[in-house]
Amino acid sequence: MELEGSPSEFRDWAHLPLAAVKLVSEKIKSITDYVRFRAVCSPWRSASLPKPRHHLPAQLPWLMIPGSPNQDWSNYPVKKDDGVRLFYDLWESKMRKLHLPELSGMKCCASHRGWLLLVATGGTEAFLLNPITRDRVQLPPFTTPLKHLWVRDDLADLGIADVPDYDASHCFQPLVGDFAITRVTFSGELTDPNCLISVFLPRCWGIFRCRVGDPCWSLVTIRHDSSDFADMACYNGRYYMLYKGAMAIIDPNKLEERGVCILEELREDSMFLVQQESGIYVVTVNNIEEEEGGRKKRKQKFELYQFQEQPWKLNKITDESNTTIFFGSKYHGLGVRSDDWDSLDAGSIYMEHKLSPPSVEEAHVLGSGSLYSIFFAKLVDGKFEPLVLDIAKEPPVWPHPPALWFQPSFL
Hints:
mainly beta
């Protein structure tokens, strides 16, 4: 008779058949669970792929909080950044702390497909970083003279006046232009030598692009009369430039500007673009007041449209059951397919928002800075409810660094 708790009662999980380990690894849905799985032991790590490409679904976004929680903000600019960043994981409803020394001294401007765009003050260095794998893709600095995408003869054929040489480095001056980029997109996988990386600089209303390994950025377009410029997205090689009341489309592959279409739906208080596999979507945000219980209550009305060409128009999405929107600082928005996650409430919007301490007593304890929170609403009614409050304190710096929705990925 064996005694209770004897070694024979405990399974040696490290000696499971590797084929069974591989099958189990392919059933995991969460990227954090997959990392834990591979950390169990060497056999499990060897039986699973370091960068799974197919069986992990699109992940629920994390909210990246700017600035290290360990920094002393009493003397700005902070001389030392330890590279620690906080991410709020919606899937597990918990804060994650990642040590990313690559972020030290860099400004995190935007995110796309699991990559963060980092730019040094003054635009002297730029690169993409995957915080999960720590892979890094170097990009040209913005201090290098730009290349014109269209040569002078092409511009003349299009009836466009000669464009002088342009230098974008002024957009990245300290304090004023630390976060000059609000959008980054890529046309494919970064390992593809033909992959185009594009960035949007609303400060000069310009779009720039490059390939990995290029010595400089190429200027796609600059608009000097664009005070109503809201956002940019790229789809099937074309650039979609969103204005208040209009959309402009540029096709650099055919060296043509397809013109500007006037869209009456784009006259709301604010708008942003969402780039999906099925096309380009526009989210409009309108502040309204409604009577509720005899009192006027202010709320935001969200409407979702898909942009259609030939003829150009916006088709209102009446069934949002397959789309969930994540809305963050500087109109940084992204969308995910709701059916990828059973727990995700379809037809909804998750909004990062900063709340100031409501009372003098709380301000005394918490300080004068705002606190990051996440609110949730159904797109059909726009009534926001708090999902998680007081995630972290906003760094007391200017210009305010954006809090970014970041979709973790191994790719």
